[in-house]
Structures are given as C-alpha cells and as structure tokens.
Amino acid sequence: MHRIAVCPGSFDPLTMGHLDIITRASGLFDEVIVLVSVNMMKADFSFSLEERKSMILSVTKHLSNIRVESFDGLLADYVKQVGAIAIVKGLRAVSDFEYEFQMALANKKLYDGAETVFLTTAAENMYLSSSVVKQIANFGGDISHFVPEQILDDIKKRLVKEK
Ligand code: PNS
Questions:
Q1: How much of the chain is helix, strand and coil, in % rounded to 5?
Q2: How many angstroms is it from 87 CA to the middle of ligand 1?
C-alpha cells in the first residue's frame, strides 16, 4: 500500500517549523503532499499562491517523496480525492490545541478515511510562526534563524520595509 499524507497550511511564508514537520513526515509516509490551502481566517496574504509553492519546492528538493500542490476547497475533499490516509500537522503549544482539535474533529466528520496525525514541534521552533516572521521582518529584525537560507532573500525582499 502506497501511504500518502497531506501536510496542509497557509505557508505565508514557510518557516523552519514547517520545514521540520514536512521533513519528519516524509520519513513516516511513502509520499507527502504539502498542500498550500486557504485559511478563511487569514484574508491578507503576503505571498501569492505560486510564490508560496515555489518557496516550498525550493527547500524540499532533496526530499524525493514530497509533492507541492495547492487547493482552494475543503481539505477533507482533497484528502479523499488523492486517497491520503493522514493529515499531518505540527502542534506547538497549548494555544494551538483547541483550534487544531476542532479542525481534526471536523475533518474526521467530513471524511472518515484519514487520521489527523500531530507531530510535536521541535523545542527550538516552539515560538515560531509565519506571523512572527512577518512582524520581525517588517520592523527590520533578523529572520535568518527562522526561515530556510534558500528563501531568506525572497522573503526579505517582500517583507522588509525600505527605510
Ligand atoms: O497554516 P494554517 O493557516 O494554520 O492552516 C490552516 C489550514 C489552511 C490547514 C485550514 O484552514 C484548512 O484546512 N483550510 C482548508 C479549508 C477547510 O477544509 N476548512 C475547514 C477545516 S475544518
């Protein structure tokens, strides 16, 4: 059996935290589809869908079982469509739990054929999020420890305000 997992998110932009989860998921499943999805709670994106996809592609090149796709419908429908057996998400702290638990239950209700699997975030990425990266970059702070080196310049170009 070819075991496919979907790793969904906004990835606006991808952080070291995301890359860690994607990398660990690639070791657990035969194929991992990193799915750039739409979060209706986040209306303003800093990067286009294509930019987000191409950033993910460039930092996962070395992982042979990763595919990068986008989808603007329900995650549960996509998971069913591709025959995935798992939705992989990273779980940071207590604050993530309620929202993630709610989504996992809703997705299970919508499609019973896949499990949501939570990977605990590496301790050094505990505080990290795309929003934190955007805030720090916006005010001219150093984000080099928070995002992969290959995409650092692209992210800075877009987010660091000219003084
Ligand atoms: O990185 P994010 O923004 O926390 O990821 C959230 C995301 C995109 C995975 C979630 O909003 C999602 O699954 N969106 C797709 C639409 C959907 O299925 N929504 C209902 C989830 S219960």
A1: 45, 20, 35
A2: 11
Is residue 19 in contact with ligand 1, taking CB distance under 6 Å?
A: no
- In this structure, are residues 69 and 77 in contact, taking their beta carbons and an 8 Å threshold? no
Nearest CA to ligand 1 atom 12: 39
pLDDT per residue as tens, the chain (163 positions)? 999 999 999 999 999 999 999 999 999 999 999 999 988 888 789 999 999 999 999 999 999 999 999 999 999 999 999 999 999 999 998 888 999 999 999 999 999 999 999 999 999 999 999 999 999 999 999 999 999 999 999 999 999 876 5
Residue 18 a catalytic site member: yes
Helix (H) or strand (E) run with residue 110 in it: helix 94-110
How far is the centre of ligand 1, averaged over its atoms, from the C-alpha of 131 (Å)? 16
Residue carrying the six token digits 């935290």: 17
